[in-house]
Amino acid sequence: MAVAAKRTKTIIARRQDLIRGTIQSIARRGFANSTVQTICDEAGLSRGLIGHYFKGKDELLLEAFRSLVTEADEDTRRAIREVGEDPLQQLLAATVVSFRRSEQREKSTVWLAFWGTARWNPEMQRLNHHLYARYRRWVQGRLAAAAAERGLEIDTRRAALTYAQMIDGFALGLIMDKDAYTPQEASDIVCGWLLDLFGESPKRGGKARVKRGKDDD
Amino acid sequence: MAVAAKRTKTIIARRQDLIRGTIQSIARRGFANSTVQTICDEAGLSRGLIGHYFKGKDELLLEAFRSLVTEADEDTRRAIREVGEDPLQQLLAATVVSFRRSEQREKSTVWLAFWGTARWNPEMQRLNHHLYARYRRWVQGRLAAAAAERGLEIDTRRAALTYAQMIDGFALGLIMDKDAYTPQEASDIVCGWLLDLFGESPKRGGKARVKRGKDDD
Amino acid sequence: MAVAAKRTKTIIARRQDLIRGTIQSIARRGFANSTVQTICDEAGLSRGLIGHYFKGKDELLLEAFRSLVTEADEDTRRAIREVGEDPLQQLLAATVVSFRRSEQREKSTVWLAFWGTARWNPEMQRLNHHLYARYRRWVQGRLAAAAAERGLEIDTRRAALTYAQMIDGFALGLIMDKDAYTPQEASDIVCGWLLDLFGESPKRGGKARVKRGKDDD
Amino acid sequence: MAVAAKRTKTIIARRQDLIRGTIQSIARRGFANSTVQTICDEAGLSRGLIGHYFKGKDELLLEAFRSLVTEADEDTRRAIREVGEDPLQQLLAATVVSFRRSEQREKSTVWLAFWGTARWNPEMQRLNHHLYARYRRWVQGRLAAAAAERGLEIDTRRAALTYAQMIDGFALGLIMDKDAYTPQEASDIVCGWLLDLFGESPKRGGKARVKRGKDDD
DNA sequence: GATGAATGAGGTTTCATTCAT
DNA sequence: CATGAATGAAACCTCATTCAT
Known about the structure:
4 copies of one chain form a homotetramer. The first copy, chain A, is mostly helical. In chain A, 74% of the residues lie in helices and 2% in strands. In chain A, α1 (3-29) crosses α2 (36-43). In chain A, 37% of the residues are buried. The first copy, chain A, binds a DNA duplex through α1 and α3.
């Protein structure tokens, strides 16, 4: 391998090390207690090195957030590709992979830490808006396709919002309190909601049914 | 008594001023850029005064979070009391008041900022767990009561989780992107979900219906 | 004295302390080795205090330079006032006071240190230009007045430049090498030059005279 | 021999490159903002290379100063040689070449930057003292010779000091403010002073003359 | 009680130097 | 020999806290 190529590889690798270090440091100590020192410690590098690979701490933080976000995006895309073309299957797969991510509790926590700061960080906000817009568009599209296949009429905007915010709401709850419910439970509920939406649920999870033997006799 | 009362009141008032200042400062500058100076500026007090009313900045932050949390709690209780004893009406009122809170965008943002740090702050975490546990218990109880009234059988744990996380998910979405949907929309969706759960919804909002003229005729 | 006035006085005093500390630190260690720490040490204050009184180190350095420059200006004005209205006497007094300043070797050295950086510091440059322009104008005016009194015709621009640069040249020489000549010598030479210019010198210092007994007899 | 010679030459050439880079970097950014990086950039070399050719940054700075100083010395010697043996002609040539150097404004500025630090750098100071002592001795010798040729009696110490400090004073003025006067003007004044000293000036530049029509009638 | 001056710890960043490739 | 990655010291600055007035 050419020297230049090798060097480039090292640069990328070191940047990755620092990004990983950032996420790990935040995971362990929180956002406020993560200093350049703790980040470099986690990355196994010396303090001054950050300047070689990033313009400063702020850029590194942004890149760490970007890394988190794009990793999630890619995970989801991969999971979707694997289940083929059926829109409902794709939505179910996206749901499952979302909560599989919640099992990596540390990363999720860091995600929330970033979200807590994004409001005052234009770059982060832009990045987040961009990805969420695309995500919601995709969800809405899949819902529309699934409905069309079944000859159903759905308020897809409403359903897409509900879906996306349910996912986030359950993820948020898992971050804030790991003992309130499990990722599996959350996954089941959302998948149940999806199936129910299209009238395909065998067990109508979240829906009420009339108690047997009370009014029916 | 007069003097002592006045002093006591002043102390309480000053503490409130500082708490308000904290929230305002975080709302304007973010968590990371809120210093004792900016907080005292917002509160209209001098820098050194913080030591008279709180043990330190950390305690003040915790109290500010507590204030946010208990204010929300009290708002909700008041709203519930106002609609009387009907469990479904209470849940609907709680929903409405939740999203009315989202309209105060600044406070919500601060809330998220606190959540982003709560994971590494045992006190905050304890406070949050306590309130959420009570909240979910209450939701579950109301759902159970509403179901019982109607002779319906519901998985109340599942429904309570869904309800609580939907609320949070929609609130989170409003904080992260004020243009994706309105609080009103979110409120409608969740209220619709509640009504649908009990089979009372006239317009079946998020639910699919079979398209007219396709299978029918 | 009112509290506010007292405080203002303290502020001014502390700023002066820091300015003095800056000059002293540069005098002892040079420009490059003067840090905020050494400056505050010389001023007898703690490191962080600089932020209370100046926007940063750069501002403090500029103010120290300004202090040096205006002090020199005021010294000269005072000396001039004391000798009355005669233009030649004023120029002689200005000369004497200039070299009296050179006796404070430390300050002069610091002056040169600042000059060595002024080229890349727009503020310092502006300040310096302003004062020098005024200074040269004043010299030229006094020379013109002295010439007019005596009915002499002088190229005042040329004479003013010569005077001003001689002063600076001798001052510079004293800074660079304290053993080459004394301030007194320099003072005598420049005063001699002035007197000679107006034909008033009893002993014609720097001027050649024909050796006795060579051409005369 | 070929290889060794080539290497030696390369080393010398590289050292020269670095010295030139140092002067250029200081000229562009000032002393305080010249780092090993900026110097090597200007020299077209990589950062780490400095250690191969100099013991460290300090040595390089010293060598750059030495280069400036010896270059000036050699320029002057060459100019003197070219005008032959007449002492006054030599002094005039030295004067002219001094102000020709002032036309290279960047180098002069760097010179002053070094002077601003020399006080705290024993090596620089020694170097400077040595050269100035020799320079003043030479000036004094030429003045004495010129006076002897003409049968004039001169205080040569005084005249040599005046000459040397006038040169420096005018050079300093040109560095500090390029618009106050031109190198040509300065050169004329000093040459005029020299000629006048030996009673050879056709136009008695800086000297006063009695106005016509006042005492003459 | 109220103020803001004072302190000094600790954060980010820059930089001269070393060293493996 | 040349490169630039790596190191860690040290600089500047910010900030929570203390304390004299």
